[in-house]
Amino acid sequence: MGSPATTAQGFDVLSNDKYGRYAVASKDLPAGEVLVSELPFAVGPKLDTYPLCLGCLAPVDASALCSACGWPVCDADCEKLALHADNECAVFKAAGVRFAVPAEPGAGTCPQYECITPLRVLLAKEKDPARWDKEVKLLMTHSDKRKANPQWGANQVNVVDFLRKKCKVESRFSEEAIHEVIGILEVNGYEARTPSGSMVLCLYPQAAIMAHNCVPNTVHCITPTNQGGERYRIVVRTAAAVAKGSMLYTSYAHTLDPTMLRREHLQLSKFFDCDCARCADPTELGTHMSSLKCTKCDNGIILSTNPLDQGAEWKCNGYNCSNTLRADQVRRVLGVVQAEQEAVDQFESGDALALGPVEAREKLLKQYKTVFHPRHALLLQLKHSLAQLYGRVEGYALDDLPDILLERKIELCREILAALDVVAPGMSRIRGLTLYELHVPMILHARSHFQTDQLTEVQLRQDLSAAAKVLAEAADILCLEDPTTPEGSVGVMAKESLIQLQASIDSLPL
Ligand SMILES: C[S@@+](CC[C@H](N)C(=O)[O-])C[C@H]1O[C@@H](n2cnc3c(N)ncnc32)[C@H](O)[C@@H]1O
């Protein structure tokens, strides 16, 4: 371990062979403490994106082009936005490189866009060499490993050659410099959601220092535009109290993915093998988010014999059961289920169209019951979708939900929260949103039982107070988000609803 290289607010930056640079709490930190608040060094389309307006980053069909450079924008206002006008516009215009409008607009990802964000990073380096030297050039690129991937060749053609030869920036940016920024973006980039809902890539050199853990102890929020006119500021906070000397972790993987899929994603996109406590434990810290059901005995659970080896055999833990599965068989099951879920999410499955979004997911849950442990991560993903759909989609409006479906929504939220208590403890966004989702059926259920004389006024007060506790925690978490973001606006609603709920609780007898 090296000695602290930088001291920032609340953390020191150390480095070692395993992590490279990493952040450690320099004092005892309470939950919600701000660790980093920074603007991006660059922001732009993800490397594999469909066409976006280069000014506001909203999805476009490429029918409107910038009058100066001929690349997609929404309209004349967007072509003047600094994000485009002060970046690639001048380069494209000077070289006479216009966007080639695809024959079939809307036909998936657009390779011409791959050069945009690397070019924005290179231009930012020219404009702010001091920040580049101090913060950005220290970031990891994993060039040796990336060179062995087929993507390196695609980058050479779509980004390096395109920029140097077609856009005529050979004298400004070397091949190595362009590959370096592609690596920096791939290894360190954060995804952010634009106000129009598209996903874009942001580079935050301070936030990127944090190492990964599948149970992170920090949370971050990115605000696309705040009231001061700033764009894409990130604020990183502690999710729970962190003791002095502890590492500060973010998560580069999906919380509700099983170990095999998280580790595969981390190896493919971040080039390391995660060995955190969650990954190392076959039961995922007792959550059973990776466990399968044994089909050969009554109560057996099939677990990996070594989750840190993606190829290790899986074995039933049932008494006297010798059932085993090869890792590739387990991986195939996960792939099939993911594909079926995706088809339902995108309304591409017959069931989603014929049955509707709720019934199609409930049917999948039933179908997978015999394969997975009830708390398996892929089932939790389905349950997470269902918890949001009950009360929102046609035929399932909240006010019309019978008690049995209110109970279903409550049960789904509670199952998700039980897993999050372990794998995303503290003030995580997903926890805040799930708590918000939970409080409404709790209130409706209590009122419905009171109206049908199944609860006394005192019991109603108790049940509403329990819902108020849930709502208060949701408000505490979501009010950390900027009120202009969707999550932040739920936080504002939660705070307002809490006042009303408290007033109605106060009118009931103790
Ligand atoms: C976003 S960077 C983190 C900052 C980086 N360590 C640096 O020095 O700039 C991500 C890289 O850090 C390393 N890293 C982060 N978390 C790790 C972990 N849990 N185990 C091993 N390596 C990790 C990996 O090399 C990964 O590709």
Please provide a written account of the structure.
With 510 residues, the protein is of the alpha+beta class. Helices cover 44% and strands 13% of the residues. The protein contains 18 helices and 15 strands. It has helices spanning 76-79, 82-85, 88-95, 116-127, 129-136, 143-147, 150-166, 175-188, 259-270, 277-280, 327-345, 350-355, 357-368, 377-389, 403-423, 429-451, 457-478, 486-506; strands at residues 6-8, 11-16, 20-25, 34-38, 42-45, 190-193, 199-203, 211-212, 218-225, 231-238, 249-250, 292-293, 301-304, 314-316, 324-325. The strands form five sheets. The chain has a four-stranded antiparallel beta sheet with strand order 12-13-14-15. Helix 14 crosses helix 15 and helix 17 (457-478) packs antiparallel against helix 18 (486-506). It is globular. The structure holds S-adenosylmethionine. It comes from Frankliniella occidentalis.
Tally of separate helices: 18
Low-confidence stretches: 1-7
Strand order of the largest sheet: 12-13-14-15
Per DSSP, what share of the residues sits in E-state strands of 2 or more residues?
Answer: 5-15%
Chemical compounds bound to the protein = S-adenosylmethionine
Mean pLDDT: 95
The level of helicity is 40-55%
**How many strands, which pairing sense, and closed or not: the largest β-sheet?**
4 strands, antiparallel
Estimated radius of gyration: 25 Å
Number of strands: 15
Structural class: alpha+beta
How far the N terminus sits from the C terminus, by CA atoms, comes to 58 Å
Instruction: Name the overall outline.
Output: globular
